Amino acid sequence: MSTAPRVVIVHRRTEYQELIARHGTRGQAAFFLRGRGRDIAELEERHERTTGAIAQVAAAVPVDWRRGVVERADVSRFLFAPDDVVVVVGQDGLVANAAKYLDGQPVIGIDPEPGRNAGTLVAHAPGDLPDLLRATGEVEERTMVQAQLDDGQRLLALNEIFIGHPGHQTARYELQPSGSGAEAQASSGVIVASGTGATGWCRSIALERGSGLRLPRPPEPRLVWFVREAWPSPATGTSMTEGELAGDELALTVQSDQLVAFGDGIESDALTLTWGQRLRIGRAPATLRLVR
């Protein structure tokens, strides 16, 4: 007899819950917000919408299916099964946070606050879930970015991976795109983005510098990379500041005491790179399988 599927609901604490946890009581949280010109009633309303959406999603899971619930802070420790269906209730960023811990499971993005979220990855309403659970084979593959150190450590990201100095000082390294020579550089860091990430931070960099590089659309398997504020000097160059990765890799060799690489803006989950280490960044073998 086959085991019933399991739906895993991924969510994060609301801003209201975080304030209560920090200040102890509603009254103290309200006092704190009043001093900053905000009203706690707004956060309570948003909290109710989010918790209501989570409850509606949970109620829509068929009674004979298994279910699990995991909060964002615990996603890295949660054991996802190969046949899970992952339902993310929250903002687009929560999908990105969960994606790097998955291995091909279908993901359904539920928007608890329509009109407030961008809704690129959380494109569905809670009431859509019953139909979506019957359509988990209809997915859109989203390319992910992978960074791998020469010691075997690996980092995955859905939007982008950033490599730079942990103190936001000048990063020094040697950069080598596939099929090209290497160049020593000093810069504010390097960003490698997917088609999903090309609508955010990557796009702002391209617009700022007036780049002619064609950015990938969300479903495209291409990656693009940019060097931020490369500094010319007798020892460092600026001839390699952007490019495309279509199946190949970008190599970076550290030439300073320490750099870090982190994905999707999560600095707490970073690789630490020391002098002489080599990092290879390219397309990840795994993809996000987003139910559409």
UniProtKB/TrEMBL annotation:
InterPro entries: ATP-NAD_kinase_N, ATP-NAD_kinase_PpnK-typ_C, NAD/diacylglycerol_kinase_sf
Keywords recorded for this protein, A-Z: Kinase, Transferase
Biological processes per GO annotation: NAD+ metabolic process
Coiled-coil spans in chain: none
SUPFAM superfamilies to which the protein is assigned, alphabetical: NAD kinase/diacylglycerol kinase-like (SSF111331)
Claim: ATP-binding is one of the keywords in the record: no
GO terms, molecular function: NAD+ kinase activity
Keyword Phosphoprotein: no
PANTHER family noted in UniProt: NAD KINASE 2, MITOCHONDRIAL, PTHR13158
Protein name in the entry: ATP-NAD kinase
Source species of the chain: Saccharopolyspora antimicrobica
